[in-house]
Amino acid sequence: MSFALSQTQSYPAWRSRWVFILAATGSAVGLGNIWKFPYITGENGGGAFVLVYLLCILLLGIPVMLAEVMLGRRGRQSPVNTMRQLTSDAGLHGFWRSIGWLGVLAGLLILSYYSVIAGWALAYIPEMGKGTFQGAGPLESQVFFDALLADKGRLLGWQSLFMLLTVGVVAFGVVKGLGVAVRILMPLLFILLLAMLVFAYRHGDFGGAAAFLFDFNFSALSGRSVLEALGHSFFTLSLGMGSIMAYGAYMPATASIGKTVLTVAMLDTLVALMAGMAIFPIVFAHPDINPAAGPELLFVSLPVAFGAMPGGLAIGMVFFILVSIAAWSSAISLIEPAVAWLIERRGFNRFTANILLGLVAWALGLGTILSFNDWSGFTLGGFTFFGAMDFLTSRILLPLTGLFIAIFVGWIMPHVTVKEELNGNNSLMYPLWLWVLRYICPLAIGVVLLVGLYDTFAMAS
Length: 461
Prior knowledge:
The protein is mostly helical. It has a single domain (16-460), classed as Amino acid/polyamine transporter I (Up-down Bundle), CATH 1.20.1740. Helix content is 76%, strand content 2%. The protein has helices at residues 17-28, 31-43, 47-75, 79-89, 98-130, 138-150, 152-171, 174-203, 206-214, 223-235, 243-248, 257-284, 301-308, 312-346, 350-371, 385-412, 415-421, 429-460, and strands at 5-8, 11-14. It has a two-stranded antiparallel sheet. Helix 3 packs antiparallel against helix 12 (257-284), helix 5 crosses helix 7 (152-171) and helix 14 packs across helix 15 (350-371). The longest helix has 35 residues, at 312-346.
């Protein structure tokens, strides 16, 4: 596999489409797959939710991802300059440039709190190795987690380490940094997941987990469950945060966007299902652990299970290394769009741009750290600082950017340009994709956006 660059429109491009596949999969695979997907599946009844989620990936995630990659490859620049060029060339209104800016902003804001949560996973690695959770019960595990959140110094240290790891990779560039990182991190992630699956099969309730994830009890589904599946299918592919568009700019001109996107979506979904089959057998082997435990399933419930199993602490350490790698591969894609813009537009070199943006994201992350201790009592509209950042990105910026992408590519961008970039002249799937992008995606994303806003404001009031 070659990681050398070719020059396309004076912009670097990976010569192998597999490099793009690894990079885009690394961007998509993150805390959403290994932390969020298992617990929202637990909260929403299991298999029926998984089925709806898979259908949403097919009907919503893949069409929008294909459109975003296409924009990136067509523009061959950072998301901001890509949208500037595409709108200018077609004589379109400058409003559509906001797609690039919204993506870059969302990526930096997400990185600010993502680095804090990833720091929690890093903090658990040495604790597993030291045997902290050997024989621990739910109360002891909860006390440990609460103490971690209350310790500003520890949170700051782990967040800073994670941010240094992220900035360090991106500073080395498209080939030596991003390319090498995904070539190492993604195979390692799959190896660790397989190790977790073997452990879960040998020591957990594998049959119970399979029944939970793949038996379709539709009575457990609610309207909110469907909307959550719809929203998560969109967010798990890293859509609307600039990273997929930025990576699309490095995609070889001869590679098939459709086949590539399908491969990335398949790998991302496979990781989510593997994570579920690695986690739930361990959960079901312990009747006192609730699969619907919510966000604390990973950091409170699972350590108890690991501490009670033969060899569990070693595999628990492997598990939190896995979580950290997944978060790391996503984080490098969150900072890249803004880095590319500073290099193109402001004349920064890559190292300086990374240091500057890393410091910005790190400083914003201090607000998230304080949200769990000193600032926990200070809220605005019912939100802590962390809650406000999460609301702004996941409930507003990401769906709004995805909605704009679907409308822009489906209705505004010159059709001949879209068809040319996607080689759609002789494709049977192209008309179907365009129809879904035009009619299904805006409606579905719009519903997720409006219902999310309504729910949030209703809770705040």
